[in-house]
Design brief:
This protein is an all-alpha fold. Helices cover 64% and strands 0% of the residues. One of its GO terms (molecular function) is DNA binding.
Length: 132
């Protein structure tokens, strides 16, 4: 279900859906007013924020607690959720750090559960001591 949803905007823009044929310079989210251009980060933030609010309104009666969380959500929430879920499903801490472009592994460690954080930091300290 997710893959066709991701392919559709590419097809509509006349772009290939095969990753090996993607042009790295092509914007991920197109600007509807300017062919070949992407949207600014502030515009994406506003679109996602509006989406969260619309969904919150739609589910308010059935899921009020979830609706309230969505009203407080921001696009950064998606970034945080991705890191948390990736680590919980076995992604390596270093890979998540690199994908998030964190300078320090300690920053990425914030997305681990407390026992994982303690274990990771102990190993980091042990291996840092060996580098000296």
């Amino acid at each position: 279900m997710a893959l066709p949803a991701l392919d559709q905007p590419l097809v509509q823009r006349g772009l290939p859906v095969t990753p090996s044929r993607w042009d790295p310079a092509t914007p991920l989210v197109a600007n509807l007013e300017e062919a070949g251009a992407g949207i600014e980060s502030t515009r994406l933030w506003l679109v996602l924020r509006r989406f969260f609010l619309l969904v919150a309104d739609a589910i308010q009666d059935e899921r009020p607690a979830t609706a309230e969380k969505l009203r407080r959500a921001s696009p950064h929430w998606i970034r945080h959720a991705h890191a948390t879920h990736a680590l919980a499903r076995g992604a390596e801490l270093i890979m998540v750090r690199d994908n998030r472009r964190h300078a320090s592994i300690s920053t990425t460690s914030a997305y681990l559960h407390s026992d994982e954080v303690r274990r990771t930091l102990q190993f980091d300290q042990a291996f840092e001591a060996r580098k000296v």
